[in-house]
Amino acid sequence: MFKTFPKGGVHPPENKLAADKAIEKLGLPKQVSIPIAQHIGAPSKPVVKKKDLVKTGDVIAQNQGFVSSNIHSSVSGTVAKIDQVIDTSGFRKPCVVINVEGDEWAQGIDTSPDLIKDFSLSGEEIRQKVLEAGVVGLGGATFPSHVKLSIPEGKSVDTLIINGVECEPYLTSDHRVMLERAEEMLVGVHLLMKALGVEKALIGVESNKPDAIEYLDQLVNEDPAIDIYGLKVKYPQGGEKQLVKALLDREVPPGGLPLDVGVVVHNVGTTLAVYEAIQKNKPLVERVVTVTGKSLQDPKNLLVRIGTPVRDLIEAAGGLPEDTGKVVSGGPMMGKALKSLDTPVVKGTSGILVITEKEAKRDSEVHCIRCGKCVDVCPMGLEPYLLKQLAQMERYEELEDNAVLDCMECGSCSYTCPARLPLLDYIRLGKIHVNQIISNRKQK
Amino acid sequence: MTTTVLYTIISLSLLGAIAAIVLYVVAQKFKVYEDPRIDQVEEALPAANCGGCGYPGCRGFAEALVKADDLSQFYCPVGGNEVMQEVAKILGQEIEEKEPLVAVVRCAGSFQNCPVTTQYDGPATCAIESTLYGGETGCHYGCLGKGDCVDACDFEAIFMNEETGLPYVVDENCTACGACVTACPNDIIELRKKNKKDRKIYVSCVNQDKGALARKVCKVACIGCGKCVKVCPFDAITMENNLAYIHSDLCKLCRKCVEECPTHAIQEIGFPPRKKKKKEASEEASAKTEKKGNN
Predict the structure, then answer these.
(1) CB distance A362–B117 less than 8 Å?
(2) Min distance B118 CA to chain A CA atoms (Å)
(3) Which residues of chain A have a CB within 8 Å of the CB of B121?
(4) Are residues A211 and A235 in the same domain?
(5) Is this prediction's ipTM beyond 0.95?
(6) Stated pTM of the model
(7) 3-state SS of chain B?
(8) Is the same domain home to B86 and B148?
C-alpha cells in the first residue's frame, strides 16, 4: 500500500503523454525576454543597460532584499532594450530583452556533463552560492531557495523531503529529470542536507512513475541517508503540506511552513539546479519544460533557456494545432492560460499544455445542489461552496474566519463540482481581498 | 354556560390589564430618549438607502446629521442641494450649496477602438477578470465590459452598450452615489461636476502606459503627449504617469484641449455642434465633389 495524505484529493486522468520522451535541448532562440520578477518576493533590479554585451550566466538583475533572487542572462548577446512583456499572469511586466549572438558562457561555468561530487563547502557557503545562482523553487511556486535553506533562530529541521511527486496531469519534466539526471540530483540532495544540517532525506515519487522509483532505489541502495517512497496517485499529492503529511504524518499548522514541523521540502528540479549551481558554478539559466497536449503532434520534454518565447517550444513540438482553444502555462489543474505565444518561459514554467477548443470550453454553470463533493475533495478540509458564496457576497471577514487563506488553489473543488461552479475563481478573489484586509490591519 | 363565558371575559380582561400595567412600567423605566428630529430628518431624506453618503442607509445618515455640529462635511448625493437645505432648516443650521456631480466613464476603448485579442471565459464579473486575467484587450487599464457597475447601480443610471462593450451613464438618473465608482476594479468611473446643461469635458482614458504602447492597443488612448496641458489657458490639466487629467474645478469648458488632442482621447459631451471654420468647410465640400467625380 502506498502512502498518501488522508483528506480529500482527486484523481484526474493522468495523460502523461511525454513520459517516455527523453529530454531534448531546444535550439537557441533569436531573442529572449527575461522578466525581472520570476520569483515570489521583491522583483530584482536590472543592472544592465541597452547595448551592453552579456554572456550566458552573467547577472542581469540583482536581488532586492532577502526574499528575492538574482536573474542571469540565459544567452550571450547584446541587450536590445529594457522593456515590458506580457508574462504568465497576463499583465505587462518589466523584462530585459537580449538579442542572441552565439553561445558564450561566462567565465568559471563548467558546461561539461561530468559528475562532480565535492562536498567540501560549508553550509553557509552552499547557501551563498544558491543565492548567487538565483535558484528558486522550480515546482511552480518559485520561492527563492536560499530562503528555505536559512533556518531562523528557534526553529530546527530534522528531515529534508525531495518532491518528485509531479501530481499534475500531463507534466513529465520532473519524471524525466529523475530518470536522466538522477545521479546529479542525488549529489544535490546531499548538498541540501549539508546546508540544512540534517541526516535524513526522503524522496517522494508518485507510484505512476515505477521506473523512476526503481532507478532511484537502485542508486541509493548503499546510501542510508536517502530513502525513496512511492506515493499513491492522488492530486494534489505534490502540495508541500500534503507531502509532509503523507511521508511523516506531521501536520503543518495553518498559515505555517513545513519548517514549523521540522521539515524542508525541495522540488526535484530545484535539487538539480542546486547541484549545478554548486558543483558547476552554473546559475539557473535553463530548465526542463514539458510541451504537451493531446492535439500536439510530438509532445516533448525540452531543456529550454529562460526567456525563450513559448512559440518556439510549440514549434519544436510540431507547431500549434488549428483547433487549439487554450495554451496553458503549467499543468491543467493549476496552470494559467496564456494571453500570447510570445510569453517567455520563466523559472516557474514546468510545462506548456495545448488544449483543444473542445476541451477548453467551460460548461455553463447551474445552481449549487449542496452535494458536498467540494468539501469531500478539499485537501485542506475547507468548504469551497461556502467560501465561494461568501466571496460573492463580499463578506470578507467571514471568509477569513473560514480559513480561506489556507486554500492553496489546487482546483480540486472546481474540478469535481457537478454544477460546474467556478469555485476557485471566487475563492481566489476572496483571498486577494482578505490579504488586503490583513495587510491594512497590520499597517494600523 | 353563561358563567363560563363570564369567567373567560373577566379573566382575559384581568390578564390584559396586568400586562398593560407591566408594559407601561417597563416602557417608562427603560425609556430611551430619541431626538425627534432624527425622524424628521429621515422623512426629508429620499429613502434610497444607497449608502452614497457613506452611512448605513438614510436612518444612519439622519442620526449622524442630527449629532453633527457642522453640516459642511455631509452631503446626500441622491437628494442633492434641495434635500440638504431642507435638512439644514430642520436642524436650524446653514449649509452651503454644493455643485452636483455625475458619474463619468473614462474609457473609450470600444470593440472598434480597442480590439479584443484574447478570450476570457471565467465568471462574468469585472472583479475576477481584472485580478486574475487582466482583460481581453491589449489594454490592461480600460473597461473590462462585464458590467459590475451596472449591477451596482440602484437607480438604473448606467447600462452596457452592446455595440461598443462600454457602459454609458444616463445623466438624468445618476445620483452620484458612487456605487459604480467603488464597483469598478479598474477605477475608470469618476464623479465629476455636472456643470450647466450636463456639459462635460474629460480625458476618456486611464491608460498609464507610454504613448507608443497605449496607441498600439487602442486608437483613442491618451498618449501623454502633453499638448492639452500646454494649450489649456486655465492650468486645469495635469500630466501624471503618461496620462492627462482635467481638474473639473478649474476647467472652464473652453474646449481648446479637445481640438488639440491628437487621439481624440478628450471628450466633450453636451455641447452644441461646432461651427465649422470657413476653410475646413470649403475643403470638405471640395473633397465631396471630388469623390463624386471619381464615382
Answers:
(1) no
(2) 6
(3) 360-362
(4) yes
(5) no
(6) 0.85
(7) CHHHHHHHHHHHHHHHHHHHHHHHHHHHHCCCCCCHHHHHHHHHCCCCCCCCCCCCHHHHHHHHHHHCCCHHHCCCCCCHHHHHHHHHHHHCCCCCCCCCEEEEECCCCCCCCCCECCCCCCCCCHHHHHHHCCCCECCCCCCCCCCHHHHHCCCCCEEEECCCCEEEECCCCCCCCCHHHHHCCCCCEEEEECCHHHCEEEECCCCCCCHHHHHHHCCCCCCCCCHHHHHCCCCCEEEECCEEEECCCCCCCCCHHHHHCCCCCEEEECCCCCCCCHHHHHHHHHHHHHHHHHC
(8) no
